[in-house]
Model the fold of this input.
Amino acid sequence: MLFAFGLTFLIPAVAAGNHYHVVTGDAARLGTSSALVRLVGGIYKPFVSSDPYSAPEPPDLVDAIAPFASSTLKALLSAQQQCEIKSQGECGLNWDVVVDGQDWEIPEAPHLVSTVIASDRIDVLSSFTSLGHPIAVRYIFRRKADGWRLDDIRGSSSDGKFENWSLRRMLTQSLGGH
Done:
């Protein structure tokens, strides 16, 4: 079932209870936006549990996003992994950007909003509650020669209006510009 309200679409979430994913922007990109919303929703599946003690261990960040990352972001993530191997531990990132923290307890699937920013950019905002606090993480997708690719992940205020951090910027700074 698909509900249309102007250029905003509500798509019932897959296995997300009564939550709806909201897609806004150019109606011609509805299929692409919907696919990107489902992709981001899939990232959160291992993190969502009503019983955090029985939840499976989520995948490594690189494993979770590398398959659909842009070449630039993929190179930064690879450099991050190599740095961790060389230093035998943490290097640059010491927290999980997907949940915007080191610890999490996400009892319900995130509310996902997709917005077409430009003909070559679609953002997916993931809003959820973790450990009782509102969290918002923005996924920036760009159209590349090989299709839509994740180009950055940014932490946002809980209302999604301003940026707190950028994965690309943090990796570039911590890795010395790799």
Notes: The radius of gyration is 16 Å. Confidence is low (pLDDT under 50) at residues 1-29. Helices lie at 30-44, 61-65, 71-87, 167-174.
